[in-house]
Amino acid sequence: MAKEITITANSEQEALEQAYRELGVSSQQCDAQVLQPAKKSLFGKIKQQAIVKVTVVRDADTVRTAPPVIKQDEPKAVKSAVPGKEIKEETVESPAEEAQKEQNNNNSAKLQAAQEYLQAILEKMGVEGVTMTVEEGEESATITLNGEHLGILIGHHGETLDALQHLTTLVCNRLDGKYFRVTLDCGQYRDKRQKALKDLAKRTSIKVARTGRSQMLEPMNPYERRIVHSVVTEMEGVTSKSKGEDPNRRVVILPTNPRPKSSRDSYDRRRSGGSRGYDRRGSRRDHPLERVSTEGTMEKILKAERTEEEKKAKKYSKIEF
């Protein structure tokens, strides 16, 4: 009867060596079979010991020179003790996946803080019936307020809305994690304002190219100035630049081919006897920059949304958080 032994050890090799010692034979006299392979965790710890079965099949005199063949059973699926459920192998996340998961959790917490802050502000302002629609990105979110009587939340040229957006961004970024940008909209005001600015930039550019005289627009924030500059770059005969300091920084639209001064100006002035438009030396003074406002355009677009509650906006111009 053939001798056999089953050994359990931390590795297959360790189990084989122990079996050979206990049987008092060499590896060439035996057939070995791995019943259960050893498994290690990500950090090298033993999760499962190896089980090896060794059988003596040859005498010492009839030893073959060929090395023993180790047969390894195919791993079998382990059935769960609970019917209908299978045991899933534990998946180890990479450091990058763990970092991304943590960042997503931070962004969710910041977005929740932003919504809670806005809800508290709306309650203090006495604005009711306002719903929030959230569009979340990777490191940003757009919160749109919908409802009636939204004029008090927008303010003059969106100043109140911009202030609420700035404060909301500050509040949510008090939490840990990367910078999270919040864009606050109110009844599609941003789209309407953008359309009004584009129309203004086109009309003003056409006028500047036709008259050859520069024109200065009303003070705007950096986002609105970029909209105007992008429109002017597509127009012929004009260019643009920003002038002044925030919050009174403005866009100036200039002609690329200014209107030349006429050589008949001095002659016409002497004949008429007038000096209007000329300095003491007889030189014609440059025309001052004309200032253009979006008031008319925005009046037409937002006329239907204006209510008496806009007069109360001054009461909420200073918001502490």
How are the elements arranged and paired?
Layout: E1 4-9, H1 12-23, E2 30-36, E3 39-40, E4 46-48, E5 50-56, E6 70-72, H2 95-125, E7 131-136, E8 140-146, H3 151-154, H4 159-172, E9 181-186, H5 189-211, E10 215-217, H6 222-232, E11 238-243, E12 250-255, H7 265-272, E13 290-292, H8 295-302
Parallel strand pairs: 2-6, 8-9, 10-13
Antiparallel strand pairs: 1-5, 2-5, 3-4, 7-8, 10-12, 11-12
Helix pairs in contact: 2-4, 5-6, 5-8
GO biological process, one term: cell wall organization
Main location: cytoplasm
Family: Belongs to the KhpB RNA-binding protein family.
Q: What CATH architecture of the largest domain would you give?
A: 2-Layer Sandwich
Report the biggest beta sheet as strand number plus sense, adding barrel if it closes: 4 strands, mixed
* SS summary, helix count: 8
Q: Report strand order across the widest sheet.
A: 1-5-2-6
Enumerate the spans where pLDDT stays under 50 for 5 or more consecutive residues: 304-309, 311-321
- Calculate Rg over CA atoms: 40 Å
| Helix/strand/pairing category | alpha/beta
Q: Which H/E pattern describes the elements?
A: EHEEEEEHEEHHEHEHEEHEH
CATH superfamily of the largest domain: R3H-like domain
Main location: cytoplasm
Protein name: RNA-binding protein KhpB
Region (Disordered): 74-108, 235-321
GO molecular function, one term: RNA binding
